[in-house]
Amino acid sequence: MPRQSAIALTALVLTGFATAPVAEAGSGALPISPFAIEDSADFSKQIERELAARGARVALVFRSGRYREDLPEGVRYTHGAFWVWSEIELEDGSRTHGYAVHNLYHYAEDTRTSYLAQDWPLNFTRGDVIGEVGVILPSPEMQRRLWMMLATDADDALHQPDYSLISNPHDARYQNCNEYLLDVIAAATWETTDRDQIKANLETWFEPAPIRAGLFERLFGPSVDERIRMEDHRDAIRTTTFQSLANFMTQHHLSADTYEIRAAFLDRPDTPDRPDRHSPTG
Question: 138: Cβ–Cβ under 8 A, 6 or more apart, which residues?
């Protein structure tokens, strides 16, 4: 499926059980954010400055489109993407440098199918509802490999368009945004884009995060949200999260650091303790 560019992106609608890490909907829908667009823009610039100060050519950045109490235990973020230091052409034809954001999104209407999209830091922070992001900074060698893959669109070979909200990273049938990040990391690590080989390697070396679900959710989850597909799970529901990816990269010396960035605007005296929960989406 060809890579597509998205200008404005919507945050994902999640209900009940469907609060695992996800690819968010795209196709030009307006994002929903509890923050003023000026604050989101300031936050996006803050993240860019902090990444640039660390000399990051490629970083994995994660946001949450849901409030923390609405997420499963052990899950802090709902969407991850690659931030890549790039040369950017402006509307007047001049060129500058900044971060381009490489995502996997599911379509807004065909929610069981995903596509790859390159957009910008502001698109990313407009989908955030908590004013905090998680960052995994790959090692210098991993950044070099990832930069080459993303610059040449080699990651296209790793895209599985059949989407599941809670895809099992040990199974090749489905993929969500965080599993896409994992597959690209694995491809750069083992220097192969053969997905069957990547999945075999991950079965040995990667420990997914368990997602606890009661009997009701296991039986009726798919009827509540069509993005939930259970065929790739066996005895337990396990998926890719910020923390499981960070653990994998730290354990195998693929990362230089893992940390979180809090939006500076949250510390202003006029900022409420928490944004209004004006919408069930996120």
Answer: 58, 59, 60, 146, 185, 249, 254, 255, 256
Which has the closest alpha carbon to 200: 161, 172, 167?
Answer: 172
Rounded Cα–Cα distance for residues 28 and 233 (Å):
32
Query: In sequence order, which ranges of 195-256 are alpha helices (DSSP H)?
Result: 195-205, 215-224, 242-251
Angle at 82 between CA 79 and CA 86, to 5 degrees: 145
Contact (Cβ atoms closer than 8 angstroms) between residue 263 and residue 43: yes
DSSP summary character for residue 10: P
Burial of 69 (0-12, 13-18, 19+ CB in 10 A): exposed
DSSP 12: P
Beta-carbon contacts of residue 68 (< 8 Å; ≥ 6 apart)? 76, 130
How many other C-beta atoms lie within 10 A of the C-beta of residue 212? 11
pLDDT in tens, 27-86: 334 446 899 999 999 999 999 999 999 999 999 999 999 898 888 888 899 999 999 999
Alpha-carbon gap, residue 117 to 81, rounded angstroms: 10
